[in-house]
Amino acid sequence: MKKDLFAHKSKSWDMKSLRVENAKSIASVIVENIDLKDDMHLADLGAGTGLLSFFLSQKVSKITALDNSKSMLEVFESKKDEFLCDIEIVEMDISCQKLDKKFDGIVSSMTIHHVKDTKKLLQNLHDMLEDGGFIALADLESEDGSFHSDNEGVFHFGFDTEELLKIAKEVGFKDLKVFESGKIDKPHMEFIVFCLVGFK
């Protein structure tokens, strides 16, 4: 069983206003650029405690939360009654597993830099989408490795968005666009967050 790298952080995860604001900004970019419908079933990849899901829950019918951190999902579970859509919680290792079900869209916030094989992940996401379904994956633009104080479990110091677009196109995504969804200010540096949007 893989170590739960987020176990000691899960209880206080939502208390940081930077995280809440970042999730809200990402949700705004998704709502502004994708036609969400009230019968849609989304997956939230690396859902954590459900910050991004919370801000999207009033727009769709159901969200399936996917994460390999049991402790984060326990926090999500404890507050799922506050969400405005049906919630399903699935503990799984998103880096090497895919669900045998199809979604109308897959969203993600600050997760894909924790997955080593980006191309395999994108291929799995493509497979998990209905025809016409979308991805909206938010993460950091390339950085110097100082975003995290501890880089255990971090495989990418952000992403070159042109390179990410190329990989997404290779696995079959269409109508690809990258939006800036905000900035995260830390005492030593400002980090840019992007959102990659594409369709199957």
What would you say this structure looks like, in words?
The protein has a seven-stranded mixed sheet. The model is unreliable at 1-15 (pLDDT under 50). The protein is an alpha/beta fold and 200 residues long. The longest helix is centred in the N-terminal third of the chain and has 17 residues, at 17-33. Helix content is 26%, strand content 30%. It has one domain (15-30, 37-199): Vaccinia Virus protein VP39 (Rossmann fold, 3-Layer(aba) Sandwich). It has five helices and seven strands.
Furnish the topology, listing elements before pairings:
Layout: H1 17-33, E1 41-45, H2 51-56, E2 62-67, H3 70-79, E3 86-91, E4 103-109, H4 118-127, E5 129-140, H5 161-170, E6 174-186, E7 189-199
Parallel strand pairs: 1-2, 1-4, 2-3, 4-5
Antiparallel strand pairs: 5-7, 6-7
Brief rundown of the structure:
Helices cover 26% and strands 30% of the residues.
Using brief descriptors, characterize the structure shown.
disordered N terminus; alpha/beta; 7-stranded mixed β-sheet; 200 residues; Rossmann fold
Point out poorly predicted stretches. 1-15
- The value of Rg in angstroms is 15 Å
**How many separate domains make up the residues?**
1
Average pLDDT number: 88
* CATH architecture verdict: 3-Layer(aba) Sandwich
Give me the count of strands. Answer: 7
